[in-house]
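> forwarded from #structure-qc
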């Protein structure tokens, strides 16, 4: 079977950088920004990040662009976020074709960008729902077969969170994550694991646990076997009806895979992504996605 992704760019982009594990532990969504211009240096660093995005596990295409609010020359285009984000002058807008594998790769690649930006000390917030898609679409020349899966504001976050940000976080339960026993399993879905049983991969899975997800639903599940970690999507009932054009829970899986791979590589646990469905009995609403094979 083929190995699914190509790591040359990935490794190149990761030498001599701050620890991804530290960045993952420190990242949170930020919704209020100082409305200031980013320095040329920071804009160059962002350009560099956008040029070195590694391929996702399935190797599908997606593209990302930094835009400034002033690029909307048509006064009617407000680049709105339904009041969820305040002060932001810059956004990164990502587009891809609407396809099962593309959504996963999109999540993986955009989270990679978000972690790099976090490493530069910049604030970000995944937005999959609360932005005016049609306005952003006009700025990035969206083609008929493409979708804007998500965007993020980027900039210097205010020191204190706004009251609105705090309320949104409270509403989504953003501080919380599911316990290990709900997400991670040993051998099959009948045997939940705890982080003491897992050994080498315990930090890696903890980094998966901390990943951001749409409405903080954390739909990823991982079953560990002798030489593999099998990734599954356990859908939240009714969730896909909210934004039918974009499969946000597949995007979430890509985010979890990004955290997994960055942390594994940092800990020198080598491996690769492969379709290797072990054919386990699955809980309702659960589907197999992809496996990490340890080398
Ligand atoms: C795919 C995706 C879509 C999201 N969409 C929105 C959104 O539309 N509006 C919003 O305020 N937050 C959005 N979020 C942010 C989540 O609510 C947030 O990541 C989660 O509550 C965990 O909080 P944290 O990022 O601070 O750890 C989204 C996150 C992801 C991963």
């Amino acid at each position: 079977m083929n190995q699914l992704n190509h790591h040359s760019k990935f490794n190149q982009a990761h030498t001599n950088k701050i620890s991804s594990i530290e960045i993952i532990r420190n990242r949170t969504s930020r919704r209020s920004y100082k409305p200031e211009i980013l320095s040329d240096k920071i804009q160059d660093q962002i350009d560099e990040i956008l040029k070195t995005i590694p391929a996702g596990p399935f190797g599908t295409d997606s593209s990302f662009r930094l835009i400034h609010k002033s690029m909307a020359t048509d006064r009617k285009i407000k680049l709105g976020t339904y009041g969820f984000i305040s002060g932001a002058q810059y956004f990164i807008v990502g587009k891809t074709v609407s396809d099962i594998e593309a959504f996963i790769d999109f999540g993986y690649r955009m989270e990679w960008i978000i972690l790099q930006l976090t490493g530069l000390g910049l604030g970000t917030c995944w937005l999959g729902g609360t932005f005016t898609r049609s306005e952003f679409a006009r700025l990035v020349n969206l083609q008929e077969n493409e979708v804007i899966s998500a965007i993020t504001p980027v900039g210097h976050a205010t020191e204190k969170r706004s009251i609105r940000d705090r309320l949104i976080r409270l509403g989504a339960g953003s501080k919380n994550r599911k316990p290990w026993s709900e997400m991670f399993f040993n051998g099959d879905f009948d045997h939940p694991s705890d982080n003491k049983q897992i050994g080498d991969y315990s930090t890696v899975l903890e980094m998966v646990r901390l990943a951001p997800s749409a409405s903080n639903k954390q739909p990823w599940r991982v079953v560990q076997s002798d030489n593999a970690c099998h990734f599954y999507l356990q859908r939240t009932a009714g969730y896909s009806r909210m934004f039918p054009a974009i499969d946000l829970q597949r995007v979430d899986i890509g985010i979890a895979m990004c955290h997994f791979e960055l942390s594994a590589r940092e800990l020198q646990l080598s491996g690769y992504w492969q379709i290797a469905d072990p054919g386990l009995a699955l809980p309702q609403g659960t589907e197999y996605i992809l496996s990490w094979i340890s080398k």
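QC bot note: Residues 28-29, 84, 125-130, 150, 168, 172, 174, 212-216, 248, 251-252, 255 surround flavin mononucleotide (CB under 6 Å). The chain has a mean pLDDT of 92.
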